[in-house]
Amino acid sequence: MTILDELNNDIRRKVGTLQAGQQFSLRTLFGGSEEFEKCGSSGQRKALGTQFRRAVTGGEFKDVEYSHHNQSPSEHWYRRV
Questions:
Q1: Domain range for residue 57?
Q2: What number of CA atoms fall less than 13 Å from residue 25's CA on the CB side?
């Protein structure tokens, strides 16, 4: 089981609360840096980011589209559709 599998329901629930057009990163979706740190180790959070980006671009999250990199190459931004 991947970290995305473990957090899938939480992510879908949180995305469902966003308005169409609203942008987010996984860090902001989980309520900021301190809350996002509770999702696992640094390596697990990086894996989650990679898995989520691949799932979004692969069409597994129909209500989310990939938006852009922030200034930090490790933070990807998405848009609620």
A1: 3-80
A2: 19
User: Residue 65 corresponds to which amino acid?
Assistant: E
- Partners of 58 in the beta sheet? none
Give the separation between CA 60 and CA 63, rounded to whole angstroms: 9
Q: What is the pTM for the complete model shown?
A: 0.92
For 27, half-sphere exposure in the C-beta direction (CA atoms, 13 angstrom radius) is 12
Strand-strand pairing, 64-69 and 23-24: unpaired
Domains contained in the chain, number: 1
Give residue-wise pLDDT tens across range 27-52.
999 999 999 999 999 999 999 999 99
Under DSSP, the state recorded for 25 is -
The two most distant CA atoms of the chain are separated, in Å, by 31
